[in-house]
């Protein structure tokens, strides 16, 4: 990250925000963990000003929580929060898909197809980080093709809360294979301009993600409770 030092302030804090976002999504900063400013400044090779601006951006997105006299912590969603957020997200994804099928341009469709093939290649080589980045870009492209700025603003806000959970939900081989098959069917529906089919695929896809995330959370809680009992 050293090369970003000479950039203008707005660009710099945007870059720092993107790097922090990735760290939160990929679990390098665990849910509930405090963001240590000194360590992050050293790690990202930036001063405190752009780091604090980046943290404010992530707080606005709902990825970190600013606590009085305690600094910033990575947001940790409870099960009810997760269920409620996925419920809203499924509706937003479904609407994005239905409108995208009606409004997507040939250029946008080609771009989405290209990202899909690239994502399949990442899946084949078990490159989760690249797969996830392309996966998120495809979902954003569906939303962009819907051409509804209000839908996009709402989508971005709600989606930010789920990024880390969606990343972790692909770490099981069988479930990852199912997600890939669902993406194949999404592309087919978009190519056929079948809005109802694309909506149904996206809603089902989000439902499966939700189930995996809740299952992971319950397993982690049960393991933690067991560990406490042993002590």
Please, could you describe this protein's structure?
The chain has 231 residues and is mainly alpha-helical. The protein folds into two domains: 2-74, Winged helix-like DNA-binding domain superfamily/Winged helix DNA-binding domain (Arc Repressor Mutant, subunit A); 79-225, Up-down Bundle (Four Helix Bundle (Hemerythrin (Met), subunit A)), CATH 1.20.120.530. The chain has nine helices and two strands, in the order αααββαααααα. The chain has helices at residues 9-25, 37-44, 48-61, 79-103, 106-124, 128-145, 149-168, 173-191, 195-230; strands spanning 64-67, 71-74. The protein has a two-stranded antiparallel sheet. A hairpin with a 3-residue loop joins strand 1 and strand 2. Helix 4 (79-103) packs across helix 6 (128-145) and helix 6 (128-145) packs antiparallel against helix 7 (149-168). The protein is globular and about 55 Å long.
Condensed summary:
With 231 residues, this protein is mainly alpha-helical.
Please give the CATH architecture of the largest domain: Up-down Bundle
Write the H/E string, N to C: HHHEEHHHHHH
Radius of gyration: 19 Å
Quaternary organization: single chain
Please give the number of β-strands: 2
The CATH superfamily name of the largest domain is GntR ligand-binding domain-like
Briefly note the structural class of the backbone: mainly alpha
